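Collaborator request, handled under Task 6.
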Amino acid sequence: MSVARLRVDVQRHGANAIVTPAGELDHHTAELLREPLEACAEEPGARVVVDCSRLEFCDSTGLNVLLGARLKAEAVGGSVHLAAMGAVVARVFEITGAGAVFTVHDTLDAALAE
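Structure tokens returned to the collaborator:
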């Protein structure tokens, strides 16, 4: 069995932290996203944008990482935004209703412009 691979890139864009997971986000790889995402989310007043454009798959474990980061950000006056979700990833949010608790943007540029 091969472990699905996930790469996570974090960049700063003004007041925003842009977290870009690339690959498959599932129970094998969720910890690779959790640490950098929560580190950004725990900064007081943080505005974290998760660029989902390179995310090929997201299961419930990955969804829980995103939801957990959202709660941490809101606890310190920050927020987590999702941008550029592909159809496969968007479907997970649609089925679970999780899209309703996030601010979702069609593109990364739209998320940064807000």
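The cover message to the collaborator said: "The CA atoms of residues 4 and 24 lie 6 Å apart. The longest helix spans residues 60-75. Please let us know whether this matches your experimental observations."
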